[in-house]
Structures are given as structure tokens and as C-alpha cells.
Amino acid sequence: MTDLKECPKISVIVPMYKVEKYIDRCLETIKDQTFKDFEVLIVDDGSPDKSAELADKFTKADERFILYHKINGGLSDARNYGLDRAKGEYIVFIDSDDCIHKDYLKVLYDECVNNGADIAYCNFRHSFFMSKLILPSFSFIKQGVFDTETALNMLISDKYLHSFAWNKMYKKSLFIDNHITYPKIYFEDVATSPRVFLHAKKVAVTRKSLYYYEKRGGSIMATMDMRKVNHLLLSILFIKNYICLQGEYDKYKHSIDRISKKMYIINWYSITAEHVKAWNFREMKQNFRINRKLYEYLISKDYTPVKDDPKLPFEMKQPHK
User: Fold this and answer.
1) Is the pTM for the entire model greater than 0.85?
2) What confidence tier does 223 reach under pLDDT thresholds 50, 70, 90?
3) Which domain holds residue 244?
4) Count of domains in the chain?
5) Has residue 208 been placed in a domain?
6) Is the same domain home to 189 and 252?
7) Cα–Cα distance measured from residue 243 to residue 221, given in angstroms and rounded to the nearest whole number
């Protein structure tokens, strides 16, 4: 049995919901880390399967593993729950169907400490549980140590850096001191990661592929509907609203415009697909118009930021069969 320190260096937050097939693999790869000074906060988000029972084996064998049970509130709520209880100086999020290389924590921690960085970022690979394959992601990232403006522009524009909550180590103070939490929307990581990066003085990036992301058919992008289409644009509005409140909009306008245009184009495909699936084209043209109006709203220089969570002024409608 490994003793848990009062204040571990790293808090590993693992939100868990209906992952009984994957949870053993995930937690085993955390337990086997070469870096040992960590705690693992497993947040059971009201999972109806045997996930919690399987995870409980780790809490009995290793005091660094702590299992929390809560009513189902979604991924954002589970991450925020873990953040509220984390004792470590650094935070990492690991999705409970994913797994990590044995040096994941060590490399990211060293990247932070050796470079005086507030965030460390690594490359990732695709994992296929059934076949046990681990394949390259072909994600082209730029290695180095970057200042706030450079790193955040790469992140917002989705060029070289990406907004996943995982594959990163963060100083916990970035969240706590700036009162940043994950909103209860789809693409919550897109809405949140840039807000965290805005407060990081340095971001260290390594091309080492240390995180293994499980490819599953039920992902958000694979099951798009019009609510998710709306939330895709809403996540960009979260970024713009926050950066405007901080008085930093001019530094990141080009990147916000770039990602807004990319999402606008992606939404054309999603809108078409939803109307074809429903075989209902009555409001298709109207949805295209709203998509255009929301894009123009996102890139407008006349936007007035709000202190509460922003809302879209209008939304696209789900076609019904």
C-alpha cells in the first residue's frame, strides 16, 4: 500500500460514467506511473454500471486513490467537483475510458518545473480497446516553450495546439485564482481551455505522445445534433466574451475569427446531415441563415461582453421526422 501525502504534487481527476469496460485499464496506467507523488480523485458521476465497484478495488489497495460518488451532473460537473477537492499544486484530467504512458506525469511535471511553465502539453495517440491498437494521431503540434499570446493564439485557432481538457498539466491556481470552471455545455473544453491559457505566463509543449485517447463511436462529434451544433458556436462565444472582459480582444481577434469561420463551415455539413437524417428540409434554409448570422455575431467588433455565462442571441432548430 502506498501512503498518501497531505499535499501531493499532482491531483489526477478522473470523471467516471458508464466505463466498466475501460476503467481498470485507465486506473492501472495511473497506478504504474514512474512519478509517484500524486493523488487520484475518481469522480463517480452516478454511473449505473459496475464502474464504481471496479474503481473501489484501487482505493482499497492504494491510499492515493480516492473515490467520490455524486448524482449524475455530466462531465463538466464531475471535473468541477474534482477541482474543488484537489490538494495538488498541479492538475491533470484523464477521461476514464482513456489511458496514459507510464512517464506521462513525470514528463509533464518536469516540463512545468524545468521551464517555469504554468501549463505543460503533450501529443497524443488513438487507442482502440477491442483490438488493443495504439496508433498515431497525426496531430501536428509545435514543440517549445511559449508565452501567453503565442500559445493562446495557437490554441484558439486550433492550429498546433488543441483545447482538450486532457493531454495537459495545469497549475491548479490557474483555475482557483481566476474562478474558472467548466460550463455545462457540449464542447466545454473548447469553452474553458483558452480561458485557462490566458492566465498562463508560459506553456511548455512536447511532441512526445504520452496520452492515449480511446476512439469510440459515441463521441460528441460522431453523434451531432442541432443542440451540439449550437453549442459549438456557444463555446467560441465563451472564449470571446472572457477575453473581451479581460481587455485582451485585439491580441486574439484574428484567431477568434479563424476558429469562428472553421466552425461555421463545419456547421454547414452538420445542418445538412441532420436535415437529411430527418428527411425534413422545411427549415433547412432558415438554419443556414441562422448559422451565418451567428458567425457574423462571433466576429463582430461591436460585441458587448457580459459578466455571467454568455448566451447565443438565436439558435438553429432540430428538424424532426
Assistant:
1) yes
2) confident
3) 224-299
4) 2
5) yes
6) no
7) 26
